[in-house]
Design brief:
Mean pLDDT: 74
Strand order of the largest sheet: 25-24-23-22-28-27-26
Helix content: 25-40%
Distance between the termini: 104 Å
Number of strands: 43
Structural class: alpha+beta
Strand content: 5-15%
Number of helices: 61
Largest sheet: 7 strands, antiparallel
Radius of gyration: 47 Å
Length: about 1900
């Protein structure tokens, strides 16, 4: 029995002591006045009576009622029922309140009431509260009781209030049992109280149903999960009762768990700071204070009135594990909305009556009850009974529970099991002998039913209703309506004027009533409720929530048989039999190679594979237990080695939790298996299995300790006959055979009250002794596994074991095999050895002491015993250290572990080993592929092997340490010259044995070697490796590199002996040339300091500014240095003839720019000539010997012109357009005094001009000569400056001399120019240039937008009839920084285009970030593609590629329009070279062939002096500058164009990767020096002619490519099918660019595939290690990602057919035909078959390359109209400024494209045909061809003759812009009249035709125009 009410309190309004406007609560009276002994009076009631504060009210409000909850220091909850009513303010109160009237008026104004609107002071109302304090939760009884007291007062009933209150305080009711109790307070009332059947089930009334109605299913589930995972929850509502109900409902859902944190359903406003507490809570706050809760960052806010739950961003609520989350949600929706299942039925059944709110409440609770039963099913099997007497001590084995349930990765359950609520659950419900309730029955007997009903909603609903009935019956045992009779006040009684306030009660009367009741109760016998205790049923064993298959390692009987066979072979000594055994699984036995030779080399690999499965590991522990007798098993060395290996393999995959009990099962074994090292010295297995994180986890040791204690406690109480062998910890007890520990504990608890005091004390002492002895035993066990065998490794061990940091050992990969067999010594000085030993001993002692403190305190060990343990632990540790010293001393005498033999790498001819293999472990880096990550595949890393340093490469070869892939060879290598960063790393991961520090090598070929040296590699060897690597990486000069040293013996500093030769040899010629150049330079005056490449004698020294090496410019030159060739000496003539053979002159001749002889002898009719002015490299060392200059400029003037440019790199012609005759020039940047000075100087120069002014005039003349040399012709078709750039027409006349900027004030087309963000994301300049008098930028003005009229209404451009094309003859593209403040001069014909370009340092920084993004050194913090893409974007590499392509397309368009362009950026050898090379590649199809691309690189990069040695940091002098990937960036741009136009390039993508790899590899001499001058000085430029010997190693990369191309088509592009005169205009937006796979791909099977001789396959294992040849060899090949080279393993169809053809020819005894000849012949045959069979389809893959007439982006990219819109907004796919004509072309092109997709062969549809003369491309003659006009295909085809079936070319009529009469040109037929000529102009070029006579020409013109009009 318990009191219904403990206290009655009357609280009234009182003034605040500090005089503030608000009042405070005052307790007027409380009954009883003295505290109950068992229940003291709770403090702070006056705050909870008015949670919003005590305030006066201007009007009467109706009475309110709510129940607040207070929690005392003992966690007991007190329910405070508060009934509040309002009374007029008494005069004394009024006077006190008016003392601060000003503040109250302000407060009222803020509240929306004006002071004048108030009634007089006598009409203010003050709150008064009746409070009932109780420990019972009977809210309705409290409401009725307080209402009755209020009614007696208001209605003036003839009843004494003292008697009513006295009766209320003396009323007692039973706590539980389901009885009914009728009470009366003496006022004619009657109330019936029903008590619940059991007090363990919460009473919820309707609170749960109301909570779901207010918040919904999802929100309530979120709150449920947040509460269980200990988050802070805050409820908001305007109703106090709603807050109380919501909090009560949430707690009811948590059953059977109890909430143990702060619980305040109604929080007063004065205590809002409680919300900042760091501990979890459930609190309710009035919605008026919502603003004060906005700053709470970690609180989940549930708004009951709004139905929302707000979860902060920093809070993560783990959801329920699937499928429980979805199942619970589904059942809840069915309970809340029963009609949901019937909503879609065509004929719904009659409506069934819905459940009442109370029943629905119980149904919702039943759903969560089932949920907990499913979550915690089988929990009793994981309980450890540590003590039975005097009180049960229960612990829960969390790891075993999670492992057997299969929920290790579930965040929700992990946090629930670690929470306080579950700890209380274990201590309360883990007791084996106690009363049971509904949850116990459910989790023990209904689990099978719930699992069977999972997929049957109706059965689930039926079960829910059954549970709901039981819950409802618990709360309402008597469902009959109880007859309550309680008086209530009349309606609106609060508005009536009460004659007097609530009276002061007589304390004596109330106390007398209470005393009388107490006297009666003392005389009555105490009512003792007999609790029915039983043994709690355990239920069925645990099962996983989701039955998951174990995948690759299925628990097959075959695997278990392999384990048993191997164990029996080891212990029976049948080594020979084991070697002969052949099992199905031993096909993978090559991993015995990595594990070393020994017993059962065939079985052991299969066993190690099998041990990946859980069942096999358990089988191993069981088999090993069978061979342990009397806790000891002595083995020989071989047996010991193999047992330890298998133990380590078992423990390898164990986590720190040991959820499967493998480490627990092995723990007794590691102290049982041993071997004799010498008499009296025994080594146990525990000294060899210490390298596992599980041993350093305190939770593992605690679970093991409690498990063993439980076993011994159980044995203590079992009869000897029943005592079985102690079950292994972590295994499920066999409850059928013998009683479990919980059963024994239950029986003992039942018998405990019947035992005598002495017997009880004896049992308590026995149990404590058992715990104490186990604590000593575990202190020894822990010292075994925590103290290292070798004290010199103690520091490393401590880091590994996590004794200082529990997280430090989480990355253990592969275990050690035999730590005792280490035969290496550690260099430890005697002075430090003891310190280290004591240090590790102290760490182990502290670790064990913490463990002992925890387990002994929890197990109830007395403090005396605990002190004794603390004294014993250091002695135990010290004794074990002394024992280990002897073991370690003896173990060092054993032979060392046999490690895998080193695999020798394949070497190139001439490549020599500098350092032989050092044993290392190749560790995984940030790339997932090698570890079987994102792409899947095997775990190739970490790998064990060796690193080799050769004169050319750094090579790692080895095998994976994972035995599953042990037979695969791993190779990772890169050229020494590619090393960019070497960093020492500390290796946290320990593989196989203790490791030293590691080394991380990063290469610019996108390779990364992250290595850890083996312990046998001393620090001296590692340091020697670093020094040798540094020496090879940075030789003193370039002659020390591999390209020069390989195959030759060369002593640096001593030139080889030259053969005597009477005639001048090429080498002598080179020396003479350099000597003359130096003499010439020495005679010049020193006028200015500038960069000069250091001489070879100074290459090894740091760069210094030496005046002798400066290239200086003199005003006058000696005639002998610059005279024409007529005055040349014979040696000079030979020099010139050699220079003519260089790539530059061959290309000049091809372009029609002339040869040296012709330019010197013929008349000056040609605009340009070849000048030998630099033949001695006197003007510019970094330029080639022969240069193209304007015809009108004399050689002696070039010297003065060169002064105006950096490095004397004055403008020279490097390419001429065959169609527009525009020329491309290149130079270094301006010095700021040339053309810029002309523009800047407004005043005329002074009469005495300086030398600089003279140079400026020479420069002006030079540029004027370039402009004059250009052909001037009017283009009547209206093709404007940048016609393709803007598709609009030019404006009216604009002055010719301009300074244009690509800046902000652009017109419409420019403003839409998309570019990525960044410093130079668009071609732009500052507003100052744009704001000048000629502020119109080049884009809008050249596009004709500066003076255009208004556009037409449909968006088309204005009428072009009023516009005339105008353009500058020369555009100079220069650095914006060089052209600041430039003023326009209207007298010039050239135009400056300042642009912002990135500097080399920006390229370096971008490349470093790209390297780290593509080849990260460690795994990303956020795994997944997002992290990689973010790093890629941060590098800005693609933005730089975009910039280069953008500028290049701009130049291409200018050239194509007829304007010449001078690229004058930086020093003229970096970005300038990139731009001019890309421009030529895009404009000239010749450079897209193999020969042409070689010529382009030789001319623009080698001859024009790109600083390969300096940018590649090839020598010691360049070490500080670092690697700058200028050439790599150019190749990346070519790769981007190649992707967009795959049919325009003769070479393949592999060719570009090959050049990217070898331009830094230093294997070839091609890319080693900075200029032709340096190559001549070193004697390299001409040595390859005539000096070649038979089988000499290729010194030139081009020679190597040529030789390799004859053997294999690896460099050839099968899709190559170019169009004549095709100009490429690629998209350059970053969204159109792709990351080059050269940066990301890797082939671990053979290393980089760019050294073709090495790509024959992985290194061969030694002969004796190869598998038995008698075994059947499978032809099946598995291609692994990241390991195999996919193009080599799976070649494309054409390569495969060519290889097969060569193989068949070889088998037939024929000499195999070269692949290129075969390919050309097959291709020709294919075309012929395509012509013959008009309707057939091609029979091979050649159709794509043979039959595609179009090459445009519209086909490949499908991103819009054909090609880019080619305005300054060249990247936008559809420009708003495109003209109608361009859109028509796009439409026609798309029509042709669609047609060509379906037409497989060129059918001979001949609408009109005949003979026409056609002018060939540039510099080609007229030829007669047979032309066919095909209206069907919309083509004009031509053939060699009439009967020819192979088409020679196709003109797509969709591209034709106009057909106009032509004029005769040079070489035309003589007998034909002028009117027989006509021109067909396409978007690509102008075709010149000549017919037989004028009528034929007119007929052809009419026919072609007819075709155009029909289209």
């Amino acid at each position: 029995m318990a009191r219904l009410a403990d206290y009655f309190v009357l609280v009234a309004f009182g003034p605040h002591p500090r005089g503030s406007g608000e009042g405070q609560g005052q307790i007027l009276q409380r009954f009883p006045e003295k505290d109950w002994e068992d229940n003291p009076f709770p403090q702070g009631i006056e705050l909870f009576c008015q949670p919003s504060g005590w305030q006066l009210c201007p009007k009467r409000s109706p009475p309110t009622f709510f129940v607040a909850v207070l929690t005392d220091i003992n966690s007991e909850r007190h329910y405070c029922a508060c009934l509040t009513f309002w009374e007029p303010v008494e005069p004394t109160q009024e006077a006190a309140c008016t003392e601060d009237a000003v503040e109250r008026e302000e407060a009222l104004e803020e509240g929306g009431l004006s002071p004048t609107a108030l009634a007089p002071a006598g009409q203010l109302f003050a709150p008064k509260t009746l409070v009932l304090v109780s420990r019972l939760d009977h809210a309705e009884v409290f409401r009725n009781s307080l209402g009755l007291i209020y009614t007696v007062h208001v209605e003036g009933l003839n009843v004494s209030l003292e008697s009513v209150i006295g009766n209320l305080l003396t009323c007692t009711i039973p706590l539980t049992g389901g009885s009914q109790r009728t009470i009366s307070l003496g006022a004619g009332d009657r109330q019936v109280i029903q008590t619940p059947l059991t007090d363990s089930l919460p009473v919820s009334c309707c609170s749960v149903a109301l909570l779901f109605r207010q918040l919904g299913i999802t929100n309530v589930l979120s709150l449920f999960c947040a509460t269980l995972t200990e988050h802070k929850i805050l409820f908001l509502s305007r109703s106090y009762q709603r807050l109380a109900d919501a909090c009560r409902g949430l707690l009811a859902l948590l059953f059977p768990l109890r909430y143990s944190f702060t619980y305040v359903p109604i929080l007063p406003s004065q205590l809002l700071e409680v919300l900042s507490t760091p501990t979890p809570f459930i609190i309710g706050v009035h919605a008026a204070f919502q603003a004060e809760t906005q700053e709470l960052l970690d609180v989940i806010v549930a708004d009951l009135d709004g139905g929302t739950v707000t979860v902060p961003e920093c809070v993560h609520i783990p959801p329920l594990p699937e499928p429980l989350q979805s199942q619970t949600h589904s059942v809840l929706s069915t309970v809340l909305d029963p009609e949901l299942e019937l909503a879609d039925l065509a004929f719904p059944p009659p409506m069934t009556p819905t459940s009442s709110l109370k029943m629905q409440d119980k149904e919702l609770r039943a759903v969560f009850l089932r949920l907990f039963a499913q979550l915690l099913q089988g929990y009793r099997w994981c309980l450890h009974i540590v003590r039975i007497h005097p009180e049960p001590v229960i612990r829960f084995h969390k790891a075993a529970f999670l492992g057997q349930r299969g929920l290790l990765e579930d965040d929700f359950l992990m946090k629930v099991l670690e929470g306080m609520a579950f700890a209380g659950f274990v201590s309360e419900r883990g007791v084996p002998y106690r009363p049971t309730d509904l949850f116990d029955e459910l989790v023990a007997h209904e689990v099978a039913r719930m699992r069977a009903d999972e997929n049957q909603p109706q059965r689930v609903l039926r079960h829910v209703k059954e549970l709901a009935e039981q819950l409802y019956k618990n709360e309402n045992p008597y469902p009959a309506v109880a007859m309550h009779k309680v008086q209530r006040p009349a309606e609106a009684s609060h508005l009536r004027r009460v004659p007097r306030p609530f009276p002061r009660l007589d304390e004596g009367t109330v106390q007398w009533i209470v005393d009388q009741a107490m006297a009666k109760m003392q005389g009555a016998p105490p009512a003792v409720r007999a609790e029915r205790r039983t043994t709690v049923p355990a239920g069925p064993p645990m099962t996983a929530i989701l039955e998951r298959s174990s995948g690759l390692h299925a628990n097959s009987a075959r695997r278990l048989e392999v384990v048993r066979n191997c164990i029996s072979c080891v212990f029976e000594g049948k080594m020979l039999e084991a070697k002969k055994t052949r099992l199905a699984m031993s096909q993978l036995s090559l991993c015995a190679f990595i594990l070393g030779s020994g017993p059962c080399p065939q079985l052991l690999p299969a066993v190690l594979r099998a041990l990946k499965g859980r069942a096999a590991r358990r089988c191993l522990t069981q088999e090993l237990h069978l061979h342990v007798q009397q806790n000891r098993a002595v083995l020989d060395h071989q047996q010991f080695d193999f047992v330890v290996r298998m133990m380590n393999c078992c423990l390898q995959d164990c986590t720190s939790m040991d959820e499967h009990g493998i480490a627990a099962a092995l723990l007794p074994l590691v102290t049982a298996f041993c071997r004799k090292l010498s008499p009296g010295v025994t080594q146990f297995a525990y000294s060899c299995v210490q390298e596992h994180v599980v041993w350093s986890t305190p939770q593992f040791w605690e679970a093991m300790f409690y498990g063993d204690v439980q076993t011994h406690i159980r044995a203590l109480y079992l009869e000897p006959s029943e005592d079985q062998a102690p079950s292994q910890a972590g295994e499920t007890p066999a409850h059928e055979e013998s009683p479990s520990a919980l059963d024994v504990a239950s029986e003992q608890r039942r018998l405990w009250p019947t035992l005598s005091r002495a017997k009880q004390q004896e049992l308590v002492q026995k149990e404590e002794s058992t715990v104490f002895s186990q604590a000593i035993h575990y202190a020894s066990r822990m010292s075994y596994l925590l103290l290292p065998l070798d004290s010199s490794k103690s520091r490393l061990l401590r880091e590994r074991a996590g004794l200082g940091d529990p997280e430090s050992a989480a990355n253990s990969l592969v275990t050690s095999s035999m730590a005792g067999s280490v035969a290496e010594s550690y260099d430890t000085e005697s002075g430090f050895e003891d310190a280290e030993t004591s240090d590790v001993a102290g760490a182990v002692v502290r670790f064990i002491n913490r463990f002992v403190d925890k387990v002994c305190t929890e197990s109830g060990v007395t403090s005396d015993h605990l002190k004794g343990l603390h004294v014993m632990v250091p002695d135990i540790v010290q004794m074990h250290i002394e024992t280990l010293e002897a073991v370690h001393r003896e173990s060092r005498r054993l032979p060392p572990i046999q490690k895998p033999k080193l695999l020798r790498p394949h070497l190139l001819p001439g490549e020599e080993c500098v350092l032989d293999g050092l044993r290392v472990y190749l560790l995984p880096d940030g790339r997932e592929e090698g570890t079987g990550g994102g792409a899947g595949g095997p775990t190739l890393l970490p790998a064990e092997g060796a690193v080799f340093l050769t004169t050319y490469r750094v090579i790692f070869t080895g095998m994976p340490t994972d035995p599953l892939v042990g037979e695969q060879v791993v190779v990772r290598a890169f050229p020494v010259a590619a090393l960019t960063k070497e960093k020492r790393i500390s290796v946290q991961t320990h593989v196989d044995q203790f490791l030293q520090d590691g080394l991380q090598l990063r290469a610019c070929t996108f390779q990364l070697l992250k290595m850890a040296f083996d312990e046998e590699v001393g620090s001296e060897s590692a340091e020697l490796f670093r020094k040798q690597l540094h020496r090879l990486r940075y030789p003193p000069d370039v002659r020390g590199t591999f390209a020069f040293a390989s195959g030759t013996i060369h002593t640096p500093g001593r030139p080889g002996r030259a053969p005597k030769d009477k005639g001048p040899s090429l080498r002598a010629l080179s020396r003479n040339l350099v000597k003359n150049a130096k003499k010439t330079i020495g005679r010049q005056h020193i006028t200015r300091r500038k960069y000069t490449p250091p001489s070879w004698e100074q290459r090894g020294q740091p760069p210094a500014e030496d005046p002798e090496d400066e290239i200086s410019v003199s005003e006058e030159l000696e005639p002998s240095t610059l005279t024409p060739s007529t005055a040349l000496k014979p040696a000079d003539r030979l020099t010139l003839s050699s220079l003519v053979e260089r790539a530059c002159c061959r290309d000049y001749q091809r372009l029609g720019l002339g040869t040296l002889g012709s330019s010197l002898s013929r008349a000056k009719s040609e605009p340009f000539r070849v000048s030998p002015v630099n033949r001695m490299y006197a003007i510019c060392r970094s330029y080639p010997g022969l240069l193209i200059v304007p015809q009108s400029i004399q050689d002696n003037a070039l010297q003065r012109v060169s002064r105006c440019y950096r490095q004397n790199r004055f403008p020279v012609v490097c390419w001429r357009s065959g169609r527009s005759k525009a020329v491309l020039l290149r130079s270094g940047g301006l010095h700021g005094k040339g053309v810029v000075g002309l523009f800047k100087a407004q005043n005329a120069p002074s009469p005495g001009q300086s030398q600089t002014d003279s140079s400026s005039l020479e420069q002006e003349k030079y540029l004027q000569a370039v402009v004059s040399a250009m052909p001037r012709y009017a283009d009547a078709s209206g093709r404007n400056t940048l016609s393709s750039f803007s598709s609009a027409h030019l404006g009216s006349h604009v002055p010719r001399a301009r300074v244009s900027t690509l800046s902000n004030p652009m017109a419409a087309s420019v403003s839409r120019w998309t570019a990525p963000r960044g410093k130079w994301g668009s071609i732009r300049a500052s507003g100052r240039s744009g704001a000048s008098s000629m502020g119109v930028d080049v884009g809008s003005r050249l596009a004709g937008r500066d003076m255009l009229g208004a556009p037409q209404p449909n968006g088309a451009p204005p009428d072009p009839g009023f516009l005339r094309p105008h353009r500058a003859a020369l555009y100079i593209i220069g650095d914006k920084a060089q052209l600041k403040g430039v003023r326009p001069d209207p007298l010039q014909q050239w135009e400056l285009v300042p642009i912002e370009v990135f500097e080399v340092r920006q390229v370096k920084a971008s490349f470093k970030k790209l390297l780290k993004a593509c080849v990260p050194g460690c795994p990303a913090a956020e795994p997944g593609p997002a992290s990689y893409l973010r790093s890629l974007e941060d590098s800005e590499w693609l933005s730089q590629i975009h910039k280069l392509l953008q500028v290049s397309v701009l130049v291409v368009e200018l050239l194509d329009s007829g304007s010449s362009v001078l690229v004058s950026l930086e020093d003229g050898w970096d970005i300038t070279t990139q731009v001019v090379s890309l421009v030529q590649l895009l404009s000239d199809p010749f450079y897209r062939t193999m020969e042409g691309f070689r010529l382009l690189v030789e001319k623009e990069w080698l001859s024009f002096g790109h600083r390969f040695s300096h940018r590649g940091a090839h020598t010691l002098a360049g070490q500080s500058s670092g690697f700058a990937p200028i050439f790599l960036q150019f190749l990346d741009c070519v790769h981007q164009v190649h992707l967009q136009f795959p049919m325009e390039f003769e070479f393949s993508q592999f060719y570009l990767k090959f050049l990217s790899y070898h331009h830094v590899s230093r294997r070839f001499r091609t890319f080693l020096l900075d200029s032709d001058y340096e190559r001549i000085e070193l004697g390299l430029l001409y040595e390859e002619k005539g000096d070649r010997r038979g089988q000499q190693v290729c010194r030139s990369v081009w020679e190597y490519v040529e030789r390799l191309s004859k053997k294999t088509p690896v460099f050839y592009n099968y899709m190559y099918a170019p169009e004549d005169a095709e100009v490429l205009r690629p998209y350059s937006n970053v969204s159109n660019l792709k990351v080059w796979d050269f940066y990301t791909e890797e082939t671990l099977a053979e290393g980089p595939p760019y050294d073709w001789e090495l790509a024959r396959g992985p290194p061969e294992p030694p002969e004796e290690e190869r598998p038995d040849s008698s075994a059947p060899q499978s032809r099946r090949r598995v291609v692994w990602p990241c390991y195999d080279s996919r193009p080599r393993a799976q070649p494309d169809a054409i390569s495969r057919l060519l290889e097969e053809l060569q193989r068949l020819e070889t088998e037939l005894g024929r000499p195999p035909e070269r692949w290129k000849d075969t390919w050309d012949r097959v291709k020709a045959t294919q075309r012929l078959e395509g012509r013959t069979d008009r309707h057939g389809t091609p029979s091979s893959l050649l159709a794509s390359s043979a039959l595609h007439p179009r090459r445009s982006l519209g086909i490949y990219l499908r991103e819009g109209p054909v090609g880019s819109t080619l305005s300054l907004s060249l990247d936008s796919d559809q420009s708003g400024g495109s003209s109608a004509s361009s859109s028509r072309q796009a439409a026609r092109r798309s029509t042709s494209t669609l047609y060509s997709q379906f037409q497989t062969a060129e059918s001979e549809n001949r609408s009109y045909e005949g003979t026409l003369y056609k002018k060939g491309a540039f510099m080609k003659p007229w030829k007669a061809r047979w032309f066919v006009l095909d209206k069907t295909k919309h083509q004009l085809r031509y053939y060699d003759h009439r009967v020819d079936t192979e088409c020679k070319g196709v003109i797509d009529l969709a591209e034709v812009e106009s057909v106009t009469p032509g004029t005769p040109t040079m070489g035309a037929p003589k007998t034909v009249g002028e009117k027989a000529f006509f021109d067909v102009k396409t978007t690509r070029r102008v075709y010149n035709f000549c017919a037989q006579d004028a009528p034929s020409a007119q007929q052809w013109v009419d026919r072609i125009q007819g075709c155009l009009s029909d289209a």
